[in-house]
Amino acid sequence: MRKLLVISFLMLAELNGFGQAKDYYFPIAELTESKIYKYECKLDPSKTEYWKITSNPTDNTLTTEAFDCGHVQYEFFKELLTKNGSELLEFISYRAYENGQKDTIINKPLELDVFKWDTNQVYHYSAESIEDNYGEIFFNKKREFLRKEKLIILGKEYEVLKFKGTYQTAFISTNKYYEKNQFSYYARGIGLVKMDKRYSDGRKTTLELTEIISMNEWSKLK
Fold this sequence. Notes:
- By secondary structure, the chain is mostly beta strands.
- The protein has a single domain, classed as YmcC-like fold (Beta Barrel).
- The protein is about 10% helix and about 60% strand.
- It has helices at about 1-15, 215-220, and strands at about 35-40, 50-55, 60-65, 75-80, 85-95, 100-115, 125-130, 135-155, 155-170, 175-185, 190-200, 205-215.
- A hairpin with a 3-residue loop joins strand 10 and strand 11.
- It starts with a helix and ends with a helix.
- The model is unreliable at about 1-20 (pLDDT under 50).
């Protein structure tokens, strides 16, 4: 009877994606040479993003440099890949102004879980920063697995894992608090392929992976 219960649990885990999320994360072995993931917003091209993703198998790290539609970098994000998932190592934000000025904001990591291979648990990472114009800022992102789905990505149908992310930003000095939700989809062998953003004021934005660009092609676009 006990053996049957164990088998039943494993079957249920298989259906729910339990413990398999590692196969759906970014393919580390294929990203030792940086690649650019283009996340296109088809309804509003000004919201299109480019992510330069680079892995380093020597120290088990993954680095993401995020750029806006004009190829201006707005974020640097570095993760440590462990036997249990991905942990936050370094998190830097960049704010560009019309006069050409650019601020660098260091986000100090507090809680570290960016992505867990075990999908049977809710987890989060958080960071705090200090900005000249806003003072102390606290950021938290919570992630939870929802279900498996099918999506057409880059002209091919993929099975994807769907997650709900809850983003919370608190401005301590003004006691202001903002929250948004994002539904993220991860495909096996590719990583993040779609983002559905839902803002508290009712706005919605969808970004889809429409191209994976080599560094040579990227240099010609910039």
